[in-house]
């Protein structure tokens, strides 16, 4: 609650880059019910498409999610493993 969100979208021949950054909550957010696998699921889907996902806190106390998705689908889909590697 109370944060500012910035959304950026860049398209290039190689792919699409999406960046979502918030400024950090001004007040504590109430607990949110859920499984807590949102970022993990995003990372798995991004990897399967041959893209990259970066997430983490910003220097000003906010949070950023940045994804690159290639315009061409890889010829071999990959599956992320628990150690961060990918397997065909």
What is this structure's SSE topology?
Blueprint: E1 5-12, E2 15-22, H1 38-48, E3 52-57, E4 63-70, E5 79-80, E6 86-87
TL;DR of this structure?
With 88 residues, the chain is mainly β. It is built from one helix and six strands, in the order ββαββββ. Strand 3 and strand 4 form a beta hairpin.
Mind explaining what this structure looks like?
The protein has 88 residues and is mainly beta. It contains 1 helix and 6 strands. It has a 4-stranded antiparallel sheet, with helices on one face. A two-stranded antiparallel ribbon has the order 5-6. The protein is globular. The mean pLDDT is 84.
Which keywords apply here?
1 helix; two-stranded antiparallel ribbon; mainly beta; four-stranded antiparallel sheet; 6 strands; 88 residues
Whole-angstrom Rg: 15 Å
Helix content: 10-25%
Number of strands: 6
Estimate the mean pLDDT confidence.
84
Number of helices: 1
Number of domains: 1
The secondary-structure element order is: EEHEEEE
Strand content: 35-45%
As residue ranges, the low-confidence spans are none
Shape: globular
Task: Please list the strands of the largest sheet in the order they lie side by side.
Answer: 1-2-4-3
What distance lies between the first and last C-alpha atoms, to the nearest angstrom?
Answer: 41 Å
């Amino acid at each position: 609650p109370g944060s500012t969100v910035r959304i950026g979208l860049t398209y290039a021949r190689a792919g699409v880059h999406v960046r979502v950054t918030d400024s950090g909550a001004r007040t504590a957010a109430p607990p949110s019910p859920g499984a807590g696998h949102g970022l993990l699921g995003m990372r798995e889907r991004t990897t399967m498409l041959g893209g990259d996902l970066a997430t983490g806190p910003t220097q000003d106390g906010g949070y950023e999610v940045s994804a690159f998705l290639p315009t061409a689908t890889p010829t071999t889909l990959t599956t992320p493993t628990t150690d961060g590697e990918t397997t065909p």
